[in-house]
Each structure stands twice: as C-alpha cells, then as structure tokens.
Amino acid sequence: MVRTRKISVEPKDREQQVDSLRRGLEILRLFNIRHRTLSVAQIAARLNLSRLTTEKLVNTLVAHQFLRPVGDDCFEPYASCLSLGRSVKHSLAIAQVARPRMYEFSRTHDVHVTLSTRDGTHMLVVEHCTPAGKVALGLTTGARFPIAVSASGRAYLWKQPASKRKQLLEQLENASSIGAYGTLADIYAAFEELNRRGWCHITAPVANQTESIATPLPTHSEYVLAAMTVGCFFSKHEQRERIATALVEMAQEIDLVAADAA
Amino acid sequence: MTFHPALQPVRFKANFKTRRQMSISPVHPSQRSDHPPLVRVLSRGLTILSAFEPTNDWLTNSEISKKTGVPKPTVSRLTANLLKEGYLEYSPDKAAYRLGVSVLSLGFIAAAHRSFIMHARPLMQKFADEHQVSVVLASPDITSMVCNDVVHGKNMVFALRVHAGSRLRIDRSAMGRALIGSMAEIERKVFFEKLKARDSRTWKALKSEAQEAVRQMSQRGYCIGAGTMEAGVNGVAVVIDTPEGAHTYALGCAALANNLDLERLERVVAPGLLALKFQLEKELSDGSIERD
Q1: Average pLDDT, chain A
Q2: Which residue in A28, A32, A56, A82 has the most chain B C-beta atoms within 10 A of its own C-beta, making it the best mutation to test that interface?
C-alpha cells in the first residue's frame, strides 16, 4: 500500500492566506487622487507591514498589472485597476441611468452632484458631475469620504433597516469615525431631518466652504444622491428647499427608471 | 517565456485598448532573479477578480474555476472572502457572483487619471519635437504643481531638469500662474486661504502675481513666465478643463531663452499650445479618451 501524505490547509494557515489577499487589496486602496504614486516604504508604514512582506505583495500586484513601477522605488495603479473599474461601472445600471440626469441637474442648479454607495466606513463615489467652470474637488468615480460626517453617509445610514443601521453605527464608533468627525447627536439630528423631509442638509461636511444636501434612492437603498455647493452657500432658505425638492424628484426618477431597466 | 508558477492560471481578459494605450510593460517578475516570490493567495484572488472582465457577467464558482484554472475549493474560499469585503456581489437566484462596487476603490481613480496622461503623451512629444521645448503636464497640490508627465524635444541639447513626479513651486511656474489666473474669484480666494495656512512665503509671492495672471488668462488664454522658474528659461502654460471640472491639469512648455525668445513664444509656441489644449479637451469631452 502506498502511503500518501494528506495535504490540508489548517484553519490558521487559511486565515493567514486570506489576510494576504486582504492586505494586497488594501495596498490598492491607498492610492487616490492625491496619492497617485507610493513607495514601498510608504505602503509598509501605512499598513504597518514589514518591508519584505510589502515587497512580496507589491510584486504580485505588479505581476498582475495592478501596479507598475515608476522609478525611485515608487509604484502607481496600472491597467488592471482601470479595466476592473470600468467593468463594474459599465455593468451598473443605476450609474447609466443616473449620469445624464445628474449632468443636467448640475448644469441647471450650478451644483456638484454625486451618486455614492457604502464602502466599509466610507461612502464611495460611483458618479459625480461638476458644474461648468467649477473645480472638481477630487470627487470623481472611486473617491471615498467618511460616512459619519457627510450628508450622503447620514442619508445612507437613515435608509438602512434598523438592525443594519445599529451595526453600522457601532462599527463607526469602533473605527473612531464618529468621535473624529462629529457626534452621534449630529447623526440623529440628520435622521430627524430625513424623517421630516426625506433629505438632510450639512454645512462644511467634508471640506470648508461647502454645503451638501443628500437623499437616498427610494428602493435602491444602497445608493444616495447628493447636491453640493462650494464657496457660495445655499444662502436663502427657499433656494435650499428648491434644490432639495428637485434632488428628491431626481432620486425618485432614477429609482423608477433603474427598476424598469432591471 | 516561462512564467512564475503562481501566475500560470492567469488569463487576462482586460480591456485590450487600455493595455495597448499603456503599452509600457513592467519587467515580468519571473525575469528578475533578485525579485521576492509572489504571494500565491493574492495572485489567485486577483486572477479571480480579473475573470469578470470586461462585461462583469454573473459567474458561478465552477465557471470561475474553469476560466481561471484555480481549483474550485480555493475559488469558493476566495469568492466568499471577496464577497465579505464587498469586491464581489452574490445573486442567490443565480448562485453566481459578479464584481461589486467596492472594486472602484482599488486604485481606479488614480489609474483613470493616468489614462488621460497616457493619451496626452504622444501629442506632447510631437509638440516638443516640433518646437524644441520641454512639455510638462501637471496637476495642482496646493503649494506646488506635481508633474504627471514630462517630455523633451528630441534634438534639445539642454532640457529642463524635471521629470514625472517632480514638484514645481506654484508661485514660480507658468503653470501655477495659469492655474491661479483661470480660477473664479471665490475659488481663488479659497485657494489662497489654504495656501496661506500651508506656506505663507509662497502665498505672498503668488498673491502679488495673481492680478497679472488673471489678465493674461482672460485676454490670451495662456500665461507666460520669463525667467520666473529659473533664470534664462522662458515658458508658457495653459490649463486643461476636463468633464470632472475646470483646470484639472496645467500644460506648460519651456526652453532656454536663447532658443525660445519671447517673440517666438508669443507668435508660434503659445498658439500651438492653446491648440493642443483644445484638442485634448475636445477628445476628453466626446469620449475619444476613455476617462473611466
């Protein structure tokens, strides 16, 4: 009888393996509009990894064309990040339906318009339209901003079922997101506003001199629409009401058309 | 060509246009003896994600296994973890997966901007060769202009000492002045407040130049810098508006003053740079350049 050694992956090994996958993808999440290139040392420091581990992970990402070297031990996101992102974006019916309407809204009301969804303890921009002649603010597809402090994040939380909302609020508290950016009371105040009006309004949510109004999509509850102005505030109460009303109407329309398309 | 064992199952299904546009291939790790080994589980995870390109159709674990060559039990374990992290979504009806929205957080935003830069590069090179100048594409970062790409005219003896990743002082470069000159008043005010808080010396220098920059940008559409960046160097810059917003980038060119006198700069080079700006903006608007 031939004895064969049974090769099995122990649960602990499996955890370590999965951790490698998570860490590798965490590296890609470090890159954004402000940090288009990062060195191995910077990546290692930010993720609290050893240089050797970081090099192995980066090397793997380079081999799969998710990163490419740009000299001086630095790397930047490469073709696979782009093609993977395009694949998901082009398959998102909600984004296809929302984009032309958001563009029109942005031009008509001279505001930034953002469609976002949750990504961990952040909101992730799916689509963004900038009004003509205004600075982009880096809020393009793929950008992330904190849930707790943003109008979009609060509108998202409000729309979730009570159990999920509770779980997320705990998660945010554990991640210090609430303590760092605002108070639980502010979030509940936004919920009150959403209960009354179907939208919430925040001054200077993510950057100074900005003002945001957000409303969740009625049935596609994972998505939130927001209108933001920079520099010039919704100075008059009527102006804010007018834009908020139009935003809620647009959310309803996108929701209906996306449901039909599905 | 022999591939690293961890890469054997990889079957790239990516957007080939993009890969051709970004045709500078890194040296494959298997060809570098000094390179650390690949991380197998990450390699397989990336292979699984790439299996959904380009149409992001629903795929079962069996289909993913067949497509990628990764054993089904491994696929099942990894898809479960990718689902947990939001990189995949699952349909109970179809018993299948597809890419989740969180994939957009995996370097997409930085790579999307890179796509524009790769498109602009050959046009910048053509311009540099034609006018015997260095051409720089940069984006603002409060106190400096960060060079995204730099090309030099092929017959230039002396070229600017800048390369991709270099930071040029915003108050000294023509690109920084073009950016300031193209901003709306309130936007400029906000920008100066931030700059003042970060670097009061640069703020003071740039503020005194702002009026002239606004005049040049409103009257001509470009900003000239004569010896501001470095003594004996003349340059001109424009801004590039993208569908994401105004003046996302600045495009500038420069050369030694004895090769690029102010008369030639204004008569020939500046109008040419404006034409290049309009061409890039048009291609961005009509979708000739895939932004995202």
Answers
A1: 84
A2: A82
The CATH number given to whatever domain includes residue A33 is 1.10.10.10
Q: Is A101 among the domain residues?
A: yes
Q: Which domain holds residue A30?
A: 11-82
- Is the overall model pTM greater than 0.80, yes or no? no
* Helical residues (DSSP H) of chain A, grouped into ranges: 11-29, 40-47, 51-63, 79-90, 93-109, 151-159, 162-174, 177-181, 184-197, 237-261
Q: Where are the domains of chain B?
A: 5-105, 108-285
A29 and A51 in a single domain? The answer is yes
Task: Return residues 103-142 of A near B (CB < 8 Å).
Answer: 117, 119-120, 124-126, 128, 130, 132-137, 140-142
Model confidence over B65-78: pLDDT tens digits? 999 999 999 999 99
Q: What is B5-105's CATH topology?
A: Arc Repressor Mutant, subunit A (1.10.10)
ipTM: 0.81
Q: State how far the Cα of B144 lies from the Cα of B179, in Å rounded to an integer.
A: 11
Do B131 and B272 form a contact (C-beta atoms < 8 A)?
yes
B246 Cβ contact list (under 8 Å, min separation 6): A130, A132, A133, A134, A135, A136, B182, B239
